[in-house]
TrEMBL record:
This is NTE family protein RssA. It holds the Pfam family DUF6363. The lineage of its organism: Bacteria, Bacillati, Bacillota, Clostridia, Eubacteriales. A motif (GXSXG) lies at residues 35-39. GO terms for biological process: lipid catabolic process.
Length: 279
């Protein structure tokens, strides 16, 4: 079976949104999806078959301070007003099709990092509630979002320890993979000052989280290399941006984000025969 593996990347995830909308248009039926962070949030609209929904949310709400602003860090302890993003928007504005989502006859997994155990856990779509607790957990970048509590355990961004959740797809039995990345070919992650600072903040209280933060760039580059080996052996197709992705994680320029979305969409449409045959 083919697994669809989705990297995160905050608003770089508009590239993934374009890829997923194109997959819907070419009727590529993929029954296994695993994503972390923005990869998971975008995948939910793919599973609910709501083409264009992720792009619509960006275009309608990017200028709304409740959607994203540094002022929210003071009001909500989060760069996003999470109640607005994960409750009000899907339940009042851009209505999420829960019925189609739950009726999906495949597997949709969202990864989140358990800050106590130091392991990623993958939550099945059937555990989705109306406040989207799973997605809140999967995007919880330390210091930018609060940790999300699920069943008495606290979770952070699923991309911290498994930025490209390819190993989960393999362990679940998939022998082919379509891997959607949100960085350009040749990109290599370096240790950032932000991760080093966050490491120092959490090293005493949450040592396993701190360790992942300090080693995140190493793990990411290892997973990139592994994905390339899968691609070279015919076990994976990697979809990555062909335009520059040198943007801020929380880019606010709608025109730039629309270009990134369109790039993802166009790449699939140009290669649709190969994608369909592979699936």
């Amino acid at each position: 079976m083919t697994g669809l593996v989705l990297e995160g990347g905050a608003f770089r995830g508009l590239f993934t949104a374009g890829v997923l909308d194109a997959l819907l248009d070419i009727k590529a039926e993929i029954k296994y999806i695993v994503g972390v962070s923005a990869g998971a949030t975008n995948a939910y609209s793919y599973v609910s078959r709501q083409r264009g929904r992720n792009l619509e949310i960006m275009e309608r709400f990017m200028d709304n301070k409740r959607y994203i602003s540094y002022g929210n860090l003071i009001k909500c302890r989060s760069i996003m007003d999470l109640d607005f993003v994960f409750d009000e928007i899907p339940n009042q504005h851009c209505i999420f099709d829960y019925k189609t989502f739950y009726e999906f006859d495949g597997k949709m997994l969202a990864g989140a990092f358990n800050i106590e155990t130091g392991e990623n856990e993958y939550f099945d779509k059937d555990l989705l509630d109306k406040r989207s607790s799973i997605l809140r957990a999967s995007i919880a970048i330390p210091l930018m979002f609060p940790f999300e509590k699920i069943n008495g355990q606290y979770y952070a961004d699923g991309g911290l320890s498994e930025p490209i959740p390819i190993n989960k797809s393999i362990s679940d039995g998939n022998d082919k993979h379509i891997i959607v990345l949100t960085r350009n070919e040749g990109y290599r992650k370096k240790q950032s000052k932000a991760n080093e600072l966050t490491y120092r903040i959490y090293r005493n209280r949450y040592p396993k989280l701190a360790k992942v933060l300090r080693e995140r760039h190493i793990k990411y580059n290892e997973q990139l290399d592994f994905c390339k080996k899968l691609e070279d052996s015919g076990k994976a197709i990697i979809i990555r941006p062909s335009i520059s992705m040198e943007i801020n994680r929380f880019e606010r320029n709608k025109v730039r984000l629309k270009e990134i979305y369109q790039n993802g969409y166009n790449l699939i449409m140009k290669d649709k025969e190969r994608i369909i045959n592979y699936v």
